[in-house]
Write a structure and sequence with these properties.
The protein has 6 helices and 9 strands; from the N terminus they run E-E-E-H-E-H-E-E-H-E-H-E-H-E-H. It is of the alpha/beta class. It has one domain: Aldolase class I (TIM Barrel, Alpha-Beta Barrel), CATH 3.20.20.70. Strand 7, helix 4 and strand 8 form a beta-alpha-beta unit. It is globular and about 50 Å long. The two termini are 29 Å apart. The structure holds S-adenosylmethionine (SAM), the ligand Nc1nc2[nH]cc(C(=O)O)c2c(=O)[nH]1, iron/sulfur cluster (SF4) and magnesium ion (MG). The site of magnesium ion has 2 residues, from loops. The site of iron/sulfur cluster has 11 residues, from loops. One of its GO terms (molecular function) is magnesium ion binding.
């Protein structure tokens, strides 16, 4: 059976971001990313710092670990990374989770397509704004969004915003795919801050700034503004 590189499995917790924010869920985080975002809050998945934590796991072993952690206290699983879309072999896990009547969410940046995207219930595509130092390939993204919107699945776009330039980028993405539910998310500039109270205050100020930007923009009448709820609650800790 094909193995999946897993760096952490945690939960049950709540989905802290995007289209199903608040949903109780288990998380599976895969290792490896084709991007290197300047502000990545999960850089341990790709920078080698947690290399020793990567386990090559079968779908069944992943499921067993989730059951061990969560028992019967979950029916939703979120797959994140790194970029889980690099892994063709995730199909086996997705099939197994379906057999167990799990609802499945997945987080990816929209750089790589997989046919198993069609089987994800809550799919978040999160293209990266200029502050990340990454370049969006809009030809790839156009094809992806065309396929996904022709299909009945539950898909959304989520752009993290750190500054005015990112906001312009977010507007552009929303205008390009106007029928896709669109979320802007507060960027966390202080991913190494250990003082939760100070972090919360800063993030709430940034949320207020972002809400104001949306309120002032006639291009952003149909978007939703969200914080990272898990960061407000638990700071920069891993595994929550
Ligand atoms: C860690 S990524 C993993 C999945 C995939 N690579 C992606 O970027 O969509 C999950 C989500 O966290 C967001 N994210 C990463 N670092 C962040 C930060 N410092 N502040 C706010 N959101 C962040 C990403 O934009 C993405 O939407
Ligand atoms: N609670 C919680 N919600 C999340 N939503 C997206 C996350 C991610 O890192 O992909 C994440 C995470 O790490 N924790
Ligand atoms: S695409 Fe996602 S995991 Fe990869 S570097 Fe960017 S935020 Fe991090
Ligand atoms: Mg995260």
């Amino acid at each position: 059976m094909e193995r999946i590189p897993v760096i952490e499995i945690f939960g049950p917790t709540i989905q802290g971001e995007g289209m199903v924010i608040g949903q109780k869920t288990m998380f599976v985080r895969t290792a490896g990313c084709d991007y290197r975002c300047r502000w990545c809050d999960s850089s341990f998945t790709w920078d080698g710092s947690a290399k020793h934590e990567i386990k090559q796991m079968t779908a069944e072993a992943i499921w067993q670990q989730m059951k061990q952690l969560g028992g019967d206290r979950f029916n939703h699983v979120t797959i994140s990374g790194g970029n889980p879309a690099l892994l063709k072999g995730l199909r086996a896990l997705i099939s197994l989770l379906k057999e167990h009547n799990m609802r499945i969410g997945l987080e990816t940046q929209g750089s790589v397509w997989q046919d198993w995207f069609y089987d994800i219930d809550d799919l978040t595509i999160s293209p990266k704004p200029p502050s990340s130092n990454m370049e969006t390939n809009f030809a790839t993204l156009d094809t992806m969004m065309e396929r996904l919107t022709a299909h009945r699945g539950h898909v959304s776009l989520k752009v993290v915003v750190f500054d005015d330039e990112d906001f312009v980028y977010a507007q552009h993405v929303h205008e390009r795919y106007p029928t896709v539910p669109f979320y802007v998310q507060v960027g966390n500039d202080d991913i190494h801050e250990a003082d939760d109270v100070a972090l919360r205050l800063k993030l709430l100020q940034k949320l207020e700034w972002l809400v104001d930007k949306v309120v002032q923009s006639k291009e952003m009448n149909n978007v939703r503004v969200l914080p990272q709820l898990h960061t407000l609650l638990w700071g920069n800790r891993r595994g929550v």
